[in-house]
Amino acid sequence: MIKNINDFSFTPLPVGIGGSMSVLISSDDAPHFAMRKFIIKKEGSMPFHTNTVEHEQYVLSGSAKVVIGEEETIAKKDDILFIPAGVPHSYEVIGDEDYEFLCLVPNLEDKIEIL
To answer: Which tens digits make up the pLDDT trace of 40-96?
Structure first.
């Protein structure tokens, strides 16, 4: 399977400010993991929340203050993040660019809780 990023549309996220997501590889496409692309617009954010599945993320562009549990860091282009299942995390875009990242998650039921 080969897909092109330009063939995807983005769906606004129901929480936060300026966020949208596209599912690049779904559970229908692959048996173990899904790949999603997120964009959080300049000055946007996603509130503290937890997921019941882990996240592996690769930052494509921009920078954001990311809080994972008790740790706060600035994530930027080419950084890689691991967010364990159940750990609260949030994003606040900083700088003059949108924050874009790929997010891989296991193909399991994911319950999200906004904190």
So the answer is: 999 999 999 999 999 999 999 999 999 999 999 999 999 999 999 999 999 999 999
User: How far is it, in rounded angstroms, from Cα 21 to Cα 18?
Assistant: 11
Q: Collect all residues with Cβ–Cβ distance below 8 Å to 91 and sequence separation of at least 6.
A: 16, 40, 45, 46, 64, 65, 66, 99
DSSP string, the chain: ----GGG---EE-SSSEEEEEEEEE-TTT-SSEEEEEEEEEEEEEEEEEEESS-EEEEEEE-EEEEEETTEEEEEETT-EEEE-TT--EEEEEESSS-EEEEEEEESS---EEE-
**Per the confidence metrics, is the pTM higher than 0.85?**
yes
